[in-house]
Amino acid sequence: MRTFGNRIERRALRLLSVLFDFVVIALGTLTMLYVVRMIWDLAVNSLIHFAPEDALQGIVLVLIFLEIFEIIVMYIIYHHVPMKNVVEIGVLALVKELLITLDLTELGWQVLLGMAALIAAMGWVYTRERQREDNYNRFLIEHGITEKDVDDLTKTLGEARE
């Protein structure tokens, strides 16, 4: 009797997984369309009235959205997002915030101290993630394992779970 429930549960989970993938793909498509729109607006506004601060803020915002798009693509492919990419978005967002507030005297020392602590924490996480990736790649090289072998194994394990 439990086998029947497992089959129904597996089908329901597979259906929800496919639905989730479609939602993520739609978000990726909308993100890229928004990036194209931002680039167009940035180009038009720069031709009409060039303001270096606005152009720089627009460029950083485009970079943030491109990082978000990269995360969406990585999730679609691997169903996993490395923490390194999330930290990169955080750093870019902080840089954008600092660019908006060009007069740093407007910020209190508490805000600057908080931003410094946040940047230090994100730097630590980023460094740890890079070390983990380097150790992983070193392991693969030492044992003669290629990325194709890893992809094949991941695919086989995914099929075994279904």
Automatic annotation (TrEMBL):
What keywords is this UniProt entry annotated with? Cell membrane, Membrane, Transmembrane, Transmembrane helix
**UniProt subcellular location:** Cell membrane
Q: How does it sit in the membrane?
A: Multi-pass membrane protein
TM helices/strands, residue ranges: 12-35, 55-78, 85-102, 108-126
The record, for InterPro entries, names: P_starv_induced_PsiE-like
Q: Which Pfam families match?
A: PsiE (PF06146)
- The reply to whether Chloroplast figures as a keyword in the UniProt entry is no
Question: GO cellular component terms?
Answer: plasma membrane
What name appears for this protein in its UniProt entry?
A: Phosphate-starvation-inducible E-like protein
Natural source organism: Thermococcus indicus
